[in-house]
Each structure stands twice: as structure tokens, then as C-alpha cells.
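WARN retry 2 of 3 for item q-0093 after timeout on previous attempt; input resubmitted unchanged.
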Amino acid sequence: MSSTYSPDLRIELIGTGDQAGVWGATTNNNMAYVLEQAIAGYVSVAVASANQALTYINGATSVAADNQSVHASIALTTSTGANFAVYAPPASKQYTIYNASSFTATIYNSTSIGNTTAAGTGVAIPAGKTMTVWSDGTNFSQQNTHLISPTIASPTLTTPALGTPSSGTLTNCTDLPISTGVSGLGSGVATFLATPSSANLRSAVSDETGSGALVFATSPTLVTPALGTPSSGNLANCTFPTVTNATNAANLVTSNFTIQESGGKLIFKYGGTTIASLDSSGVFTTLSDITAGGTP
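OK item q-0093 returned
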């Protein structure tokens, strides 16, 4: 019987009765150039085209470039100046691949040994990164998709799905969107935090009164406020109101009479015409007669 070859590593299987007296060399080559390389071997592959098959032969060879696919660790370089793909044979295998290029490398299984037709899904390896991947003979996958309680020092994660962390400190984090990244906020609060205007604050609270601009304690300008009953106050700088029907004092309410201070006197007017005055000396002057003891 002639030799056959194993389906995954293409190890030469000596036929019964073949290679009498020389089978030891074949066995040694299988161990040195196939088994050892598959377990601990390293090869650097220079990729010269956008799609390139990794070499794979039957049996052992001492020339690493002739049997790239059998090696456990592969470094990829390229002269293409662009992203590229490499194709391993359609056999189950695990690789540690270092993409030493400045472009993305994708590894696929080919549909048959030596071609560059993808048999299934591939794995993209970013520029300058190392990944461990494995294949079932058709599809490549990354080696690990789940870690139990790992400690990872200073990792850089790109668009990770973190799930629900049991703990964490966000001191150095940035760009948390208030509108979508924070839950439990009251109605309108996210809008106010994003755009802190008086109107947005008013929308965010539920027991406000009045409208307009936000007021602070020192020197505010109030527009038509309803002051209620102040517990204290100082009206030294206020303008004394004209006594009209708008004045809230029953003994001063009138439709036509007004009393106001002017030039150190109290001026009495009726219908806009001055009819009398009272100065600081108590002198009362009137346009008409004064009736004493009559019925008012």
C-alpha cells in the first residue's frame, strides 16, 4: 500500500509494508516538520495580493514557506498597500495570528486547498493586533467570546457591549449622553441639563409659579409680580403711587380725585385739574370757598 495523508495536518501515514528500512525518516519528518510546527511552530507570511492562499502540502517539509498553513503562529505582512485576505485550507485548526501590517487582514477557510474562495465566515484582524482564531474547516471564529472574572490591565475597548457591570468608576470617562445615557430623570430634566435655559428649567419642575426668566436674590428685575404679603420690606427707593381707583385703600378709592406729592406739597386734583394744595407749614390753599361746620 502507498502512503496516505491525514485530513487536517496532512501527516504522511505510511502504508502497510511500505518504506521498509526507511520509514523512520518519514516518521521523524512528520514529528519535526508537521506535528512540532502545528503545536509550536511560527512562520512569517508576506502577502503580495489582496487574496492569497496559505501554502499547504501533503507530508512534511523542512521549508516553512511550503507549508505555511500547518504552523501554530503566523505573522502577516503585506505589500498590497490595502486591506487583504488570506485563506487557510478547509481543515479544522487553531492559529495565533499577528497582523504586522498597517491594514486589516481577514482569514478564511477556502473551499479547497490552494484556492481563494471563502468557504464560510472569516475573522478580521486589525492592523498591528494579535488574535487567536479557530476553524471548524468552514468557518473561522475568534477563540474567546466569554471570560469569567478576568483582570485586564489598561485595555482599550472599541464599541464594547458592557452589559450590567457589578461595579465601576467613571471618573475619567467622557461623552455620556444625558438624553439616552442616564435613566430615572424626571420629565424635562434631561432637556434642561443639555440646554439649561429658564424655560427648560420651568418645564423640568412641577410646582412652579409664574413664567419668564430665572430670578436670583441680588437685584432682580421682576415684571408685574404678585408679591403676596411680605413679612418685611423697605420702600425707601420706591415711587409713591398716585391715589386712584387702583389703590388698595378703601378710604382713598375714587374715580376722579387724585392726591399726589409735588414740590413739597400735597396736590389735590379732580378730573386732572388742581383744586387745592397743602404745604409743609400746614397752609391749605383752595380754588373755592371753605365751608366749616357744614354737612360733608
